[in-house]
Automatic annotation (TrEMBL):
Residues 74-110 are annotated as: Disordered. This is DUF4114 domain-containing protein. It comes from Funiculus sociatus GB2-A5. It comes from the Bacteria.
């Protein structure tokens, strides 16, 4: 028995049309903003603002293209903290965000970080992560990433206080804990380096709620 005698022609046409649609329909781009990675469906310009640091190291925050390995530094500390402190002093193991604790290596905009604002254009459908590269007495001590899979033992080194929606609604805080780098004592307070992402300026011509930031444009 021939195939066209077993299956009605209309059904064969429907199956063929369905297969054609699957083949020709482009895959939906995955938009992510968190510990699983950074990726946008459209070219996206995002602004960054340094909030404060509470860590003994002198650090640089930036973006890394996970497809090419290219790193772009965005915000750098000119010194580890506003005033010199002894790195061997025991940590209080507490989150000191916003309390201006001068005894926990406090660094503030305009002092430890002379240039607290930056921006970066994320290319559409490209995998990115944030990174924090740290130094002590001018010598590199390590680098950690916002994407867990890029860190040893897939260790979480950042907290995102909000998801992708928050970029257009006041911004998203990225809080770093540099415990993965050698320290006098281990702690997990996620206050070593804090950056606000988005929420500073919106693009008036954009109706996309993800336009956080400054602008969202199609290629």
């Amino acid at each position: 028995m021939k195939l066209n005698q077993m299956i009605p022609p209309a059904l064969i046409s429907a199956i063929a049309l369905g297969l054609f649609s699957i083949i020709t329909t482009p895959l939906q781009a995955l938009e992510t903003f968190g510990n699983e990675g950074i990726q946008f469906e459209l070219d996206t310009i995002i602004e960054f603002e340094f909030v404060e640091s509470n860590g003994a190291f002198q650090s640089t925050f930036g973006v890394i293209n996970l497809d090419t390995g290219e790193k772009t530094p965005l915000i750098s500390e000119a010194k580890p903290s506003n005033k010199p402190q002894d790195i061997s002093r025991p940590s209080d193991f507490q989150d000191d965000t916003g309390v201006s604790n001068q005894n926990d290596f406090l660094g503030t905009p305009g002092d430890a970080v002379p240039q607290p604002l930056a921006e970066f254009k994320f290319q559409a459908n490209t995998r990115y992560a944030f990174y924090l590269e740290s130094f002590y007495n001018g010598k590199p001590v390590g680098i950690i990433y916002s994407t867990n899979t890029e860190n040893p033992n897939t260790r979480q080194q950042t907290e995102f206080n909000g998801g992708i929606d928050s970029l257009a609604k006041g911004g998203n805080l990225i809080r770093w804990d540099d415990t993965g780098i050698v320290k006098a004592q281990q702690e997990r307070d996620f206050d070593d380096f804090i950056v606000r992402v988005g929420g500073h300026q919106t693009c008036p011509s954009s109706s996309n709620v993800f336009a956080s930031v400054k602008c969202l444009t199609q290629n």
